């Protein structure tokens, strides 16, 4: 597969290019496991890596970036500020700590990890400051509902470039997706493969039709819905398979079949009741 497939992407609201497909490293163990996953992905052609302070693997991600041999300016790196570090000054400090662990001068995308009620609005102001100072190329949020997005836009006049949320066939988030499209916010899917719960007749039928896996069908559905996706894996086979989604297309009927699986069913926490 050519690297060109991996560089296909979307232009964010501020003009920065973000690839459609990235490697997520949630639960990838710090040290050799995450180093190898990042190196493998980059050597296969991936150009986007997504981590977070709470994953406790930023150092390994940084080492994997350096050992990959891929030029820094070819890679899109995302990390996030955790809830316990939220607030204006503490977010600025958390950013410096993440930047040091990653070994990077500039972060491509920095996100507020959750809309922690007492602090997310001040945290967003800190991200706006980091952006204006040129320390990050783009800023965004994660797990924000429509009302959270409205608040930070009203407070600062700055629209998040990205909203990374739980998004998969059983949680299609249609109202949120429509709002983000209307406001030029790029939706990004975490847990796109429903933590491996892909055993469904519709997905099996479409996989057989296209000669693909159920996972590849879901990831293709993401992209055709205009949603950036970051499947997590630490094995070369899966990392390679997850990327093999640029040589086929789902028909309108196929897309409707996947849409029909929606149950508004969450695997992760409710963003309006953050338990941490």
UniProtKB/TrEMBL annotation:
<dbReference type="InterPro" id="IPR044500">
    <property type="entry name" value="AKR5G"/>
</dbReference>
<comment type="similarity">
    <text>Belongs to the aldo/keto reductase family.</text>
</comment>
<dbReference type="InterPro" id="IPR018170">
    <property type="entry name" value="Aldo/ket_reductase_CS"/>
</dbReference>
<keyword id="KW-0560">Oxidoreductase</keyword>
<dbReference type="InterPro" id="IPR036812">
    <property type="entry name" value="NAD(P)_OxRdtase_dom_sf"/>
</dbReference>
<dbReference type="Pfam" id="PF00248">
    <property type="entry name" value="Aldo_ket_red"/>
</dbReference>
<feature type="binding site">
    <location>
        <position position="113"/>
    </location>
    <ligand>
        <name>substrate</name>
    </ligand>
</feature>
<dbReference type="InterPro" id="IPR020471">
    <property type="entry name" value="AKR"/>
</dbReference>
<feature type="site" description="Lowers pKa of active site Tyr">
    <location>
        <position position="80"/>
    </location>
</feature>
<feature type="domain" description="NADP-dependent oxidoreductase">
    <location>
        <begin position="21"/>
        <end position="262"/>
    </location>
</feature>
<keyword id="KW-0521">NADP</keyword>
<feature type="active site" description="Proton donor">
    <location>
        <position position="55"/>
    </location>
</feature>
<protein>
    <submittedName>
        <fullName>Aldo/keto reductase</fullName>
    </submittedName>
</protein>
<dbReference type="InterPro" id="IPR023210">
    <property type="entry name" value="NADP_OxRdtase_dom"/>
</dbReference>
<dbReference type="GO" id="GO:0016616">
    <property type="term" value="F:oxidoreductase activity, acting on the CH-OH group of donors, NAD or NADP as acceptor"/>
</dbReference>
């Amino acid at each position: 597969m050519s690297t060109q497939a991996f560089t296909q992407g979307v232009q964010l609201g501020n003009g920065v290019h973000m690839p459609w497909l990235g490697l997520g490293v949630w639960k990838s163990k710090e040290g050799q496991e995450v180093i190898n996953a990042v190196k493998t992905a980059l050597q296969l052609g991936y150009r986007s890596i997504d981590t977070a302070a709470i994953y406790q693997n930023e150092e390994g991600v940084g080492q994997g970036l350096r050992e990959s041999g891929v030029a820094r300016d070819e890679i899109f790196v995302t990390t996030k500020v955790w809830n316990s570090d939220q607030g204006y000054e503490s977010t600025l400090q958390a950013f410096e700590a993440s930047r040091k662990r990653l070994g990077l001068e500039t972060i491509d995308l920095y996100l507020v990890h959750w809309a922690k009620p007492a602090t997310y609005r001040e945290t967003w102001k800190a991200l706006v400051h980091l952006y204006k100072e040129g320390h990050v190329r783009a800023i965004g949020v994660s797990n924000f509902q429509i009302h959270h997005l409205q608040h930070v836009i009203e407070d600062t006049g700055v629209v998040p470039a990205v909203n990374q949320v739980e998004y998969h066939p059983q949680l299609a988030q249609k109202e949120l997706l429509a709002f983000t499209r209307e406001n030029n916010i790029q939706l990004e899917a975490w847990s796109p493969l429903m933590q491996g719960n892909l055993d469904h007749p519709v997905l099996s039928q479409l996989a057989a039709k296209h000669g693909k896996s159920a996972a590849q069908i879901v990831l293709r559905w993401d992209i055709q819905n205009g949603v950036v996706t970051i499947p997590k894996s630490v094995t070369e086979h899966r990392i390679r398979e997850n990327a093999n989604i640029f040589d086929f297309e789902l028909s309108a009927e196929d897309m409707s079949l996947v849409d029909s699986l929606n149950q508004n069913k969450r695997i992760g926490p409710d963003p309006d009741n953050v338990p941490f």
